[in-house]
Amino acid sequence: MEIAVIGTGYVGLVTGVCFALLGHRIICIDRDVDKIDELAAGRITIYEPGLEEELQRQQEERRLFFTTSMTAVSCADIVILAVGTPQKADGESDLTDLEAAVRSMAIYLSGHTYIMTKSTVPVGTNEQIEKWIKATTNEAFDVVSVPEFMREGSALSDTLKPERVIIGARNAHASEAIAALHRPLTEQVVETDYRTAEMIKYASNAFLATKISFINEMANICDKVGADVVTVAQGMGMDRRIGSSFLEAGIGYGGSCFPKDTHALLQIAGDVDYDFKLLKAVIEVNKDQRRHIRKVLLQELESLSGKFIAVWGASFKPNTDDVRHSPVLDIVRHLLKEGASVRMSDPAAELNFRRSLDHPLISWHTDPLEAAQGADAVCLLTDWPQFLSIDLHKLKAVMTTPILFDGRNAIKQEQLVDTGIRYVGIGRPGMRGIK
Ligand SMILES: NC(=O)c1ccc[n+]([C@@H]2O[C@H](COP(=O)([O-])OP(=O)(O)OC[C@H]3O[C@@H](n4cnc5c(N)ncnc54)[C@H](O)[C@@H]3O)[C@@H](O)[C@H]2O)c1
Ligand SMILES: O=c1ccn([C@@H]2O[C@H](COP(=O)(O)OP(=O)(O)O[C@H]3O[C@H](CO)[C@@H](O)[C@H](O)[C@H]3O)[C@@H](O)[C@H]2O)c(=O)[nH]1
């Protein structure tokens, strides 16, 4: 098949590479000239393990191409829409890029084409896409909603082995054609209508966000009653009805999806006069969780003014350089506001973080131990494996006050023994003050 992918962010790029791997001929289109130049030269512009090597392999096999020109759409059997749908100030999804992409590609449609929507879009958008296309061309087409569920950091394997593929279509013929395209990846296919497919995406992300806010509230109670949230989550997760994933307490969820999609779902509910009380609380708890660390540091150090705080991690989770809605951004802003100097280290996200937040009181260090030099506290905020293997005796030796705030509950009890470090996790009061 000949497939054109519009938008070469995480979703477009990974989808393009994966369908090339399955033997299709892929043309990736983006309006960003610099990005396309880099990709055409075999270099990816994001940090995603394994992706650059696979992209280069597919380019060598002459199955993967990059262009800024929408004319490439004219040869395509399938056009995949993977442009961004960011959050507007009121929480609603901004469909400006999507509309521009659809209208500009529709001019070049030639012969029957399937238009596959992978961008996360509010309910009713796939019907709107049909209208935008019809306003531009008389060529035959079918719009199919195929929401994407990949995670950053494991995007290739998630896309090649998806847990399920959701297909929202207007007719059985279009649904079957797109189901056949995905059959080499999985048999777990749900065929449904547009609106249900659109809702499945939002419901999935909102539910995962709910699990995280739930366990974060449990952690806060564990701190007060003297229970250990990591073991609570382990015990809960053994019940298959609950499941063990997304029960890691921490500084709250971030990233380009959960914050945006939970707000968009609130808006979708609001549009039909439904007050989604539970989801509002999930979002509120997540906001509070980012403030938790400030409280802890103030308790431990009394004042943060003039203090040196080392921050390990900038990205919203490990194995990505993405800082979109990273809790670390908010936390560092709080620390700066209190008058602290912040010594940061992250294996991949420095550049992106600095683009969002640069300040004379922030310094960057390749070596996390160097960042901790002379620090009054170290805050582990992203659980990159590089941070977890640091010898805590060495850490204690370089710090002014040996306080370790573990915002990911990633440090194990054995690592702390005899280090003299004052450890503060999230909902792990038993691990405090181990000498
Ligand atoms: N990032 C993820 O992990 C993930 C996972 C599942 C779903 N999604 C959803 O997929 C969509 C894309 O997300 P992303 O993170 O890959 O986006 P992104 O912001 O990283 O990339 C979007 C790309 O689209 C390009 N673009 C925008 N308008 C264009 C136009 N008119 N013509 C051509 N190119 C255009 C931009 O230049 C950019 O390169 C969003 O709706 C997102 O919610 C993202
Ligand atoms: O138990 C957990 C699990 C995750 N997180 C945090 O939640 C956020 C999101 O993590 P994750 O879901 O792994 O990352 P994303 O790459 O944002 O992926 C989510 O968002 C994508 C975009 O919609 C979906 O495709 C994926 O299925 C969905 O997992 C991160 O800040 C994590 O640190 C926790 O705090 N506790």
Written overview of the protein:
This protein has helices at 10-21, 33-40, 51-60, 96-106, 125-134, 155-160, 172-182, 194-225, 229-237, 258-271, 277-301, 327-337, 350-356, 368-372, 385-388, 392-398, 413-416; strands at 2-6, 25-29, 64-67, 78-81, 113-117, 141-145, 165-169, 189-192, 308-312, 341-345, 362-364, 377-380, 403-406, 422-424. The chain is an alpha/beta fold. It folds into two domains: 2-192, NAD(P)-binding Rossmann-like Domain (Rossmann fold), CATH 3.40.50; 239-431, Rossmann fold (3-Layer(aba) Sandwich), CATH 3.40.50. Strands 3-2-1-4-5-6-7-8 form an eight-stranded mixed beta sheet, with helices on both faces. A six-stranded parallel beta sheet has the order 11-10-9-12-13-14. Helix 4 runs parallel beside helix 5 (125-134) and helix 8 (194-225) runs parallel beside helix 11 (277-301). It binds nicotinamide-adenine-dinucleotide and uridine-5'-diphosphate-glucose. Nicotinamide-adenine-dinucleotide is lined by residues 6-12, 29-32, 35, 82-85, 97, 100-101, 118-120, 148, 150, 152, 256-257. Uridine-5'-diphosphate-glucose (UPG) is lined by residues 120, 148-152, 205, 208, 212, 246-248, 250, 253-255, 257-258, 261, 316-317. It catalyses: UDP-alpha-D-glucose + 2 NAD(+) + H2O = UDP-alpha-D-glucuronate + 2 NADH + 3 H(+).
